[in-house]
Amino acid sequence: MNSTELRTAFSLAFIYVLRMLGLFMIMPVLAISAKHYPDYSAFLVGLAIGGYGLTQAVLQIPMGVLSDKIGRKPVIAGGLLIFAIGSLVAANAESMQWVVIGRFLQGAGAIAGAIMALAGDLTREEQRPKVMAIIGISIGFSFYLALLLGPLVVSDYGLSGIFYATGMLALLCILLVAFVVPNGKNIAPRGDTLPVVRDLSQLFSNPQLLRLNISVLLLHMLITLLFVQIPVFLIDLSWPLSTHWKAYSIVLFASIIGLVVLMSLARKQQKVVMLLSVAGLALVFALMAIDHSSIVYLLLVISLFFTCFNYLEANFPAMVSSIAPAGKKGSAMGIYASFQFLGAFIGGVLSGSISEFIGNQWVFVLASGLCIIWLLIIQGLSATSRLKRYTLNTINQTPDIALQQLSELEGVEDVTVVSDEQVIYLKADAKRFDMQQARRVLGLQE
């Protein structure tokens, strides 16, 4: 990667880390720290933890499309400003209802699509996957960092301290966008980086993508559902909030070892490991419904949860990318992200509601049952092949005969033509596909 691409990758990844910290840091602490509010309830805790997911889900695609009209940086900066305002509302809240409102405002700063599109604009096609990977890794890193930092920050500065800190981080990110992130120089073809409205209905009904969208909804529903309960269990086991980071560090270390084992097994049996991971989640919640009165037992069960969660979280986006038709990855990933955030919202609401009105053991019974249904859903998921994506920029309209010849080249699996962008998207087996031959078929200079 050149200097511009490196600067793009790490500045946008840093923005992602700071912003996602603000969304995630309250997850391991809110159920305990919010008890001083006069209207405290398990339902409102669940709504506050998952509330950001609803506005993220609704606005994710529209904000991405808006960035195509008015520019990436204005949308990113505006989203960060909305996030900062939401943080300040929550920091100054005197009731849980206002914390919930603040969280909904935080989620309204839905800038993931615009960030990915800007990353595409600033990078060459052959380097783009590396940049996207760096940004993707930063998202996972921010979640684990939030689990460790949340209990430490709240023990010293209280819940409002977390919200003030995240608001300040969002304002810092605006400065990074203005002065550190490079200005757009290349305009990446939209289809593989940004949602395109005309593609959405077709992709919503794609049965393979729908299975993955439902899967990520359930996955994020389960993790949000879990974090409405775990802090309370740790307190009941005489672990003060300031020491919860120790429990999470043990869990994260154990789950990383488990993840390495699963990934090594998945090289030969990807679908089997995926099914085992979902079955593992069903087992986790069944065990939680039976007992959670021992700290060793609880840490072992949560470690199993994160092992399975991490494997699925890492592999689902790659599967979406592989299954999405050529030139439509941006739209497919936009829908996927919306389902992901919607799952976080549903998980918070369900966990809080069931805990308050029925009892928390029924939360785990429901979760285990949903995992069993999930197993049936993904049984029909086809194995995905590792195909590479190529983009060919054309000057004039391509004759039909040339497109036919292109589709018949060795290794080519899918061809999509976007006439108004003068772009042809390909999905092909890199081991068999000859890019120079494709350019000759289209009459492009080498």
Automatic annotation (TrEMBL):
The keyword rRNA-binding does not apply. InterPro entries: MFS, MFS_dom, MFS_trans_sf, MFS_Transporters, Sugar_transporter_CS. It is found in: Cell membrane. This is MFS transporter. Gene3D superfamilies: 3.30.70.100, MFS general substrate transporter like domains. Pfam families: MFS_1. Residues 8-386 form the Major facilitator superfamily (MFS) profile domain. Keywords: Cell membrane, Membrane, Transmembrane, Transmembrane helix, Transport. It is a multi-pass membrane protein. SUPFAM superfamilies: MFS general substrate transporter (SSF103473). The keyword Secreted does not apply. The chain crosses the membrane at residues 12-34, 40-63, 75-93, 99-119, 131-150, 162-181, 212-235, 247-265, 272-289, 295-312, 333-355, 361-381.
